[in-house]
Amino acid sequence: MSGERCFVLLWMAGDIVYVILVYDVNEKRVGKVLKKCRQYLNWVQNSVLEGEISDANYTKLTMELNKIINNEEDSVIIYNLRTTKYSTRQILGHERASTSTII
Amino acid sequence: MSGERCFVLLWMAGDIVYVILVYDVNEKRVGKVLKKCRQYLNWVQNSVLEGEISDANYTKLTMELNKIINNEEDSVIIYNLRTTKYSTRQILGHERASTSTII
């Protein structure tokens, strides 16, 4: 029973990752891309979102973004940090949004 | 001697970190901010730079950016990943620049 619980916890932990998403897309598609990203992540700055996301939703998000963007013109980078344990975030100037998961 | 070499290696490893920098600044200051960031990091996408940087240069960069930006209007976020060991990067669409340190 203890082993089973351990397995379930490990499986759950592996299922959630922490990502930073930055996009640089033609203004015609900015609205659609932002709307799609906001469904899964938190907006932190112009063209930047971040947050925890399940592996399943990560796959869903990338598939949906691939349908919206133009491969010749647009670019989206997703940094998968897996966890925030090894990262810190420093903000200079004005904080646009308050996401305090990374300290 | 072996202990000394070990200490030197640890000191060197601790001195370099990997960062992602994203900025959202008034267009009047975009040129200056970009120029300053490019002195230390690699441009990867509109308003996004990344790369290895020494602790000393990290401090220098943040001090210099603080002199350029307007605290009421501008925002710069620096994610300090320390190492790329725990991160991956996925690019959707067109790759703007070729920085292949994160796989």
UniProtKB/TrEMBL annotation, chains A, B:
- Biological role stated in the UniProt entry: CRISPR (clustered regularly interspaced short palindromic repeat), is an adaptive immune system that provides protection against mobile genetic elements (viruses, transposable elements and conjugative plasmids). CRISPR clusters contain sequences complementary to antecedent mobile elements and target invading nucleic acids. CRISPR clusters are transcribed and processed into CRISPR RNA (crRNA). Functions as a ssRNA-specific endoribonuclease. Involved in the integration of spacer DNA into the CRISPR cassette.
Q: Which GO terms describe its molecular function?
A: hydrolase activity; metal ion binding; RNA endonuclease activity
Task: Specify the species.
Answer: Methylomusa anaerophila
EC number(s) per entry: 3.1.-.-
Q: Which cofactors does this protein require?
A: Mg(2+)
Which Pfam families is this protein grouped with? CRISPR_Cas2
The EC category is hydrolase
- TM helices/strands, residue ranges: 6-26
What is the protein's name according to its record?
CRISPR-associated endoribonuclease Cas2
Which InterPro entries has this protein been placed in? CRISPR_associated_Cas2, Virulence_VapD/CRISPR_Cas2
Assembly mode: Homodimer, forms a heterotetramer with a Cas1 homodimer.
Keywords assigned by UniProt? Antiviral defense, Endonuclease, Hydrolase, Magnesium, Membrane, Metal-binding, Nuclease, Transmembrane, Transmembrane helix
Family as reported in the entry's similarity comment: Belongs to the CRISPR-associated endoribonuclease Cas2 protein family.
Among Gene3D superfamilies, the record links this protein to: 3.30.70.240
Q: Where does Mg(2+) bind?
A: D24
Question: Please, one GO biological process term?
Answer: maintenance of CRISPR repeat elements
